[in-house]
């Protein structure tokens, strides 16, 4: 009897242990299921978030493209060119203007406004729009940041540049000399011709592209660093001058500046 009672007690203990183990297993299984559901939900949420972000980016790029294309799939520069009246008297595209050759007295070009609000001489307008349209197609984000300038605007820029050097401790004479390496004295600036533009883009690549391709559209890299003694201006990678396709091709292929080309034509 004692053995039977003992065996019964052992059996009950074994059963309790067994059920405790089963309950522990069941609890772990429930936890595993909950973890799995949480993981599924997390990945589902991440996937939805990814789709949302992707959609926003797509809409953003579409909007940027529409803005750059004027909202109808056409380049803003192509639109600006379409239907533009470019008739009228043309400026001498090869007119040499520098610190030794001022503008003719009373000179005022026939101007056209470009996208962004700047203005250029009529004969430079169409080639400029074509060049910027191609640069835009290359993803360079071109923008004309300075075109034609009035005498008053040039005077203001000139005076401000001199003031910068004076504030750095330069003498008046040295400040003027330093300033004129960057800003032309009023009456001697190509910007007053309407044939020169300063162009920026979304990266430095715009300047490399312009140096390699601007001549195809009749523009030249006007102020190379190695021609400063001839141009009187420090290198400006953003400054381009319209001279016409024929002259631009010669200047580019022979590595000339406009001063050298003008000398050749005498």
Compact summary:
The protein has 266 residues and is α+β, with helices and mostly antiparallel strands. Helices cover 54% and strands 8% of the residues.
Describe, in plain words, how this protein is organized in 3D.
With 266 residues, this protein is α+β, with helices and mostly antiparallel strands. The protein folds into two domains: 74 residues; 152 residues, Muramoyl-pentapeptide Carboxypeptidase, domain 2, CATH 3.30.1380. Helix content is 54%, strand content 8%. It has nine helices and six strands. The strands form two sheets. A four-stranded antiparallel sheet has the order 3-4-6-5. Strands 1-2 form a two-stranded antiparallel ribbon. Strand 1 and strand 2 form a beta hairpin. Helix 4 packs across helix 5. The N and C termini lie far apart (136 Å). The N terminus is likely disordered.
- Kindly provide the radius of gyration, computed on alpha-carbon positions and rounded to a whole number of angstroms: 36 Å
Tell me the distance between the termini.
136 Å
Number of E strands: 6
Helix content: 40-55%
List keywords for this structure.
single chain, Muramoyl-pentapeptide Carboxypeptidase, domain 2, 4-stranded antiparallel β-sheet, 8% strand, disordered N terminus
Q: What does the secondary structure layout of this molecule look like, with pairings?
A:
Blueprint: H1 2-68, H2 76-81, E1 111-113, E2 119-121, H3 122-137, E3 143-146, H4 151-167, H5 172-179, E4 196-200, H6 205-213, E5 219-221, H7 228-231, E6 239-242, H8 245-254, H9 258-264
Antiparallel strand pairs: 1-2, 3-4, 4-6, 5-6
Helix pairs in contact: 4-5
